[in-house]
Amino acid sequence: MKVNQAEFIISAVGPSQYPVDALPEIALAGRSNVGKSSLINRMINRKNLARTSSKPGKTQQLNYYRINSDLYFVDLPGYGYAQVSKTEREKWGKFIEQYLMHREPMKLLLHMIDLRHPPSKDDQAMYAWLKHHGVPICIVATKADKIPKGKWQKHIKIIKETLQADKSDPLVLFSSETGMGKEELWSVIEQRIGY
Ligand code: GTP
Ligand code: MG
Q1: Domain ranges in the chain?
Q2: pLDDT at 96 (0 to 100)
Q3: Does the Cβ of 59 fall within 6 Å of ligand 1?
Q4: Is 73 exposed, middle or buried, given 0-12, 13-18 or 19+ CB atoms closer than 10 A?
Q5: Residues paired with 62 in a beta bridge
Q6: Could you say which ligand is closest to the alpha carbon of residue 78?
């Protein structure tokens, strides 16, 4: 996809604020700090449209970014961040669950996993939940630049085994730092939305 225009639309705190134009939505989920916002920026060639930070737990709403008049990226709040209170976490959990289960334009969920570490308990629970609810998933293994090339396959294998990943789920190796995986991920997205 050629990105001609990318625009921040809204930080939605509830369904009444979701766009009504029915463009396909590509959502991003993963632990805080896994690189969700950085991936959006890399996909659209912008340094800082999606706000990134070294401080985890910053994204607390559904942040909508419109790409051309083709689709939205929806940056979901990161999970597994201990310093957010339990009640806050549960509230946000419910909100995101509702979105993922019932949001009709949501065509693909990018489940982002840090390539460096085996998926956490939170990652495993999230993946199992997504599969249980039939959410279409593309696994994205992030921060590939931090692992030497010779070890990529070993780490990918650990991710697939730990998540008990469905063989039919695409897995894209990605680096926001180098741009690796960008074209492959665009083609997964395009295929999914029938672009
Ligand atoms: P929350 O919004 O808190 O959930 O985090 P996030 O998942 O949006 O992560 P974000 O994109 O803000 O990235 C967190 C940190 O990881 C930042 O310091 C990024 O620069 C860094 N980072 C993200 N992607 C990569 C990558 O592919 N390679 C490297 N080396 N660093 C990355
Ligand atoms: Mg973020």
Answers
A1: 6-193
A2: 87
A3: yes
A4: buried
A5: 12
A6: 1
Single pTM value for the model: 0.94
Report the share of the chain in percent with pLDDT over 90.
78
Length of the chain: 195
Give me the half-sphere count of Cα atoms (radius 13 Å) on the Cβ side of residue 112: 29
Q: How far is the CA of 75 from the centre of ligand 2 (A)?
A: 7
Domain 6-193 = CATH 3.10.50.40: no
49 pLDDT higher than 60: yes
Pocket mutation for ligand 1, best pick of 147, 176, 180, 182 (most atoms within 8 Å of C-beta): 176
Q: Compute how many other C-beta atoms are within 10 angstroms of the C-beta atom of residue 25.
A: 23
| Residues 79, 141: Cα–Cα separation, whole Å | 16
Q: What is the ipTM of this complex?
A: 0.99
Residue 118 phi/psi, 5° resolution?
A: -60, 145
Please give the mean pLDDT across all residues of the chain.
91
Contacts 24+ apart (CB under 8 A), 83-90: 83/57, 84/57
For the chain, how are helix, strand and coil distributed in percent, rounded to 5?
35, 25, 40
3-class DSSP assignment, residue 132: helix
Our answer on whether the CB atom of 83 is closer than 6 Å to any ligand 1 atom is no
Q: State whether the beta carbon of 116 lies less than 6 angstroms from ligand 1.
A: no
